[in-house]
């Protein structure tokens, strides 16, 4: 099983340079730990909270990342697909390894309203947007119909990625799981799932893949974790965060402990059928988060033995 990281993008900081530097430091720690992949997320109109946007931050991180997989999330209905394709073409040209497009519908009426997008159209807009992005990345000249959200006429992009870009689609509800199986190269299960739900979701996704006659390249799940120096150290950092209702998650959706305990917990996802675990740090303080990332190399080694 492969182990990757999603670098947290939201920080409560007085100086915006501090949050940006923390993202760079976390990516460097992930690189030094030898992790298999690195991603950043996507969200919009988050003020007063600072959220560092996906394209510029992954471009900066790529300067320090190696040849392992990298990528970013795009909440596709909130983006013009020609812009997405152009950004991916450029980012894939910067990346020394394979570049992945993670994508999902997105949620939150306030976010959609701020971007001037009708949330009721998001499923249809997602499918149209993904089709346009893929065709542009493949070198096609693309136009859309008169009833499409985006009125696109004879669009073509360059540069195009030097190698094919995989698309991982996230989702939790049955229609989203079916959409991921039907349209995606891979799947990304949601971070709020508790282990029993994670197993059910993986089985549901693989079943829909069989229905659609598709073989996924990746079946991934996002987990929010902390790896401590030992179990007690992990509890010191993680338990107050979980007790405060971290991101509205149920406690069982979070993973923490020493290296051996975390590896044992993550190994269960491989038994469920997941090929990749993409982790995000629970720790609110930068030194704790970086230390957790540094210990992930040992977790990865145990997962491979």
Widest sheet: strand order? Answer: 1-3-5-6-7-8-9-11
Strand element count: 11
Count of DSSP-assigned helices: 10
Structural class comes to alpha/beta
Give the helix level as a range of percent.
40-55%
> What is the top-level CATH class?
Alpha Beta
Gyration radius from CA atoms, angstroms: 19 Å
The helix/strand order is: EEHEEHEHEHHEHEHEHEHEH
Report on the biggest sheet. Answer: 8 strands, parallel, barrel
Mean pLDDT: 96
Silhouette: globular
- Which spans of ≥5 residues are poorly predicted at pLDDT below 50? none
Number of domains: 1
In CATH, the topology is named TIM Barrel
Which percent band covers the strand fraction?
15-25%
Gross CATH architecture: Alpha-Beta Barrel
Q: How would you name the oligomeric state of the polypeptide chains in this document?
A: single chain
Summary of the model, kept short:
This protein has helices at residues 16-32, 54-62, 81-94, 109-114, 122-137, 174-183, 195-211, 231-243, 259-272, 286-303; strands at 2-7, 10-11, 37-40, 50-51, 69-75, 99-104, 166-170, 186-189, 218-227, 254-257, 276-281.
